[in-house]
Amino acid sequence: MCLQLHARGERVIAACLDDSQELRDRGIHVEPHVDVTQDDAVHRLAIRLIDEGIKLDWLISNAGVLGVDELGQIDFQEVRRQFEINAIGPLRVIQALVKTLQPGSKIGIVTSRVGSLGDNSSGSMYAYRMSKAAANMAGLNLHHDLMGRGIAVLMLHPGLVATDLTKDFPRDMPWIQPDQAAKGLIRNMDQLTMETSGKFRHSNGEYLPW
Ligand SMILES: NC(=O)c1ccc[n+]([C@@H]2O[C@H](COP(=O)([O-])OP(=O)(O)OC[C@H]3O[C@@H](n4cnc5c(N)ncnc54)[C@H](OP(=O)(O)O)[C@@H]3O)[C@@H](O)[C@H]2O)c1
Questions:
Q1: Fewer Cβ atoms within 10 A, N terminus or C terminus of the chain?
Q2: Would you say residue 4 lies in a domain?
């Protein structure tokens, strides 16, 4: 998403857990060492942006982790880790950065269809499903709390994307590539208005059940 938005002329700020020479080499402003589980790191980012007088048109929360589990083998430390990153992380970042938003700004939270209650027909993946369902709830709440300020919120499912996150999954699945997912997510954000705020949308354009 950073590369495609930069290519169309947007000013992109990429907050990364570590750093990204790849994005720096393309001329993208990178904010390194922003761990979404750490109050200090997130607040330092917020202060830097606020001090520079930056107002964000879009705030995209993308950080996420996946750990596979099944009943009988659930590691509750791992459940907590996925909650910290997938559910509390977006809320921590958005709360800290809300001062950088203004009427007309848009928030996108990359959650997952796997977190949909209505779409769950297979079980397992307790930590990931629960943390992404919680992220969807946080996003819907943000929609209600921010609509009075003219800020729209959309929960985003990228599709089944071949990335580091899914590298251990079977290869015979209907994968899409990151550039295709990013294109669809950007189109969803472009189309987001106050009227369509507070929904859950697949990168293919389909609206998903909670
Ligand atoms: N791939 C799929 O099929 C799929 C499907 C549905 C939803 N999603 C969601 O899409 C989003 C992007 O995932 P992806 O597939 O692109 O996987 P990915 O390549 O593993 O990207 C996840 C990113 O999150 C970052 N991250 C992890 N922990 C973090 C933390 N504590 N603070 C800040 N950043 C952190 C990672 O940084 P490092 O690289 O430095 O570790 C990585 O850049 C995730 O929210 C994921 O749940 C993916």
A1: C
A2: no
